[in-house]
Amino acid sequence: MKSLAKVFIALLLTVTIAFGSFNTRANSSPISYIDHNQVSSSDLQPQILPNQSIEIPMTITYKRIVEIANKTQCILKPIGAYNKSLEWPLGDIDSLRLVAERFNSDSFSFASNYQIDCGIGKEKRNLQFSTSLDTQGNKKINIGVINQNGNQPAKLTWDKMIDSSDKSLLNSPFGVNAFIRQKDQTSIWLFEVVEK
């Protein structure tokens, strides 16, 4: 009888986790202006290797995804933001992780300033990520490498965002790439941080 109870509890726990009854937002700030029935938790954090290419999942049910692939041995920490509409959706990003926020908003525009933290005694570098989708469906993306804390670097990067073309910058010894990709009906803003 005890083993049957253990099996029932394990099954109940598995079903509860599978259907998302637990709120696991470990690496994400909530998007406060979006109906949370349309937003998934940011638990998409698979382990990635520094030279591994990022593959987009085959079944996607959200219209918008913002992703950051941290292909470094360092932690990315948000230290500033500029929120024109909605709020920057991602928080800390551990080393060798892909973190994403999925949502169904018809428009948004925001930017964030991240610090690359490799530990005590290591020089810190900053990167800025900026994304936008206006009400006419125009997509934009931009990146910056301003080594300054606070909200201003995010705002400056947002101000210089003009198009959807791929971007690549170097803030030695780190590189940052930005892409917008389409998978079926889903638009994906992908930022990739690598060690050069």
Query: Helical proportion?
Result: 10-25%
Radius of gyration of CA atoms, rounded to a whole number? 18 Å
Measured by DSSP, the beta-strand proportion falls in 35-45%
Helix run count? 2
Strand order of the largest sheet: 3-1-9-8-7
> What kind of sheet is the major sheet?
5 strands, mixed
Low-confidence stretches: 15-45
Helix and strand element order: HEEEEEEHEEE
Overall mean confidence score, pLDDT: 80
Shape: globular
Structural class: mainly beta
Distance between the termini: 58 Å
General description of the model:
The protein is mainly β and 196 residues long. Helix content is 13%, strand content 39%. The strands form 2 sheets. A 5-stranded mixed beta sheet has the order 3-1-9-8-7, with no helix packed on it. A hairpin with a 2-residue loop joins strand 8 (174-183) and strand 9 (186-195). The longest helix is centred in the first third of the chain and has 17 residues, at 2-18. Residues 15-45 have low confidence and may be disordered.
